[in-house]
């Protein structure tokens, strides 16, 4: 059945109705002993915010069955949540069998990690935050996690750059930024139709690749699911890829990335579903930047990433194809 079929939503919700029992904790779960493996699982979930059981297995290793057992115990005892709105996310895969559950850190898990020195704010109401996460937000966050895992594993190879991912960047940021509620938000001064105001852009993920000579390559990741309008002209009250381009371009011109994040330079990496959509994004970029700053924005697709990995010649700019993120000397050492 196609997602555009009029009966699709009814069938999806019927399928989703089978899942709520999987999202409910038993009143008296059997006891279990917390191990280093459980802690490793909690750390992965805290790092990615929302993450699927399959992604967790990829990170911690071992048998999928064993990891699912550990996840079940952590959920039953309140260390992890299974966000309630994933019942719709799960229902969307009614035609693909038993889709892996999605997990989030619960307050009890946050407290345990904080006690062990992890940079997790256990004072936040994690359970409420998890309950409010929509199915669309869950799906998007899981895809962002998948994109970052594409960087994580190649970065473990000998001679590869070290990945410094999102929250791991906080100690490297200016003190004033570290004290902000959202240190990843980049405010930008905009003049539009004769009016001046401040807007902000928040990357889906912020990360750096640290090279052997201690220099860092800095990136803002945008994970495009193919649903956002590319060319909408409105800047207030409307999301579009064009708006993101305008904000990133102006932030780069104003050097806000240095002021807020402490980056001397950065690039915006966009992963988008198709080459056609990629070409339309580049067309919008050329209009916004007046065909300048070609190196600021790079694009690729999931198929390109799967073929050669994020360090391969899979990136495209408005001026060139087959671009790599790493300096040639680094690629040769690898």
Please give a structural write-up.
Residues 1-18 and 93-97 have low confidence and may be disordered. This protein has 2 domains: 8-134, Winged helix-like DNA-binding domain superfamily/Winged helix DNA-binding domain (Arc Repressor Mutant, subunit A, Orthogonal Bundle), CATH 1.10.10.10; 153-333, no CATH class. 40% of the residues lie in helices and 15% in strands. It has a 5-stranded mixed sheet. The protein has a 3-stranded antiparallel sheet with strand order 1-3-2, with helices on both faces. It has a two-stranded antiparallel sheet with strand order 5-6. It has helices at residues 8-16, 36-48, 53-60, 64-76, 86-91, 107-115, 126-132, 135-152, 175-178, 241-253, 256-261, 275-289, 302-308, 328-333, and strands spanning 50-52, 80-81, 102-105, 162-165, 186-192, 195-201, 205-210, 216-223, 267-271, 297-300. It contains 14 helices and 10 strands. Strand 7 (205-210) and strand 8 (216-223) form a beta hairpin. It is α+β, with helices and mostly antiparallel strands and 334 residues long.
How many β-strands, per DSSP? 10
- Across the major sheet, the strand order is 4-7-8-9-10
What structural class results from the helix and strand content?
Answer: alpha+beta
Output the helix-strand order. HHEHHEHEHHHEHEEEEHHEHEHH
| N-to-C span | 46 Å
How many separate domains?
2
Regions with pLDDT < 50 over 5+ consecutive residues?
Answer: 1-18, 93-97
Shape: globular
User: What kind of oligomer do you see?
Assistant: single chain
The total of helices stands at 14
The largest β sheet comes out as: 5 strands, mixed
Mean pLDDT score, rounded?
88
* Helix residue percentage: 40-55%
- Rounded to an integer in angstroms, the radius of gyration calculated over CA atoms is 21 Å
Strand-residue proportion:
5-15%
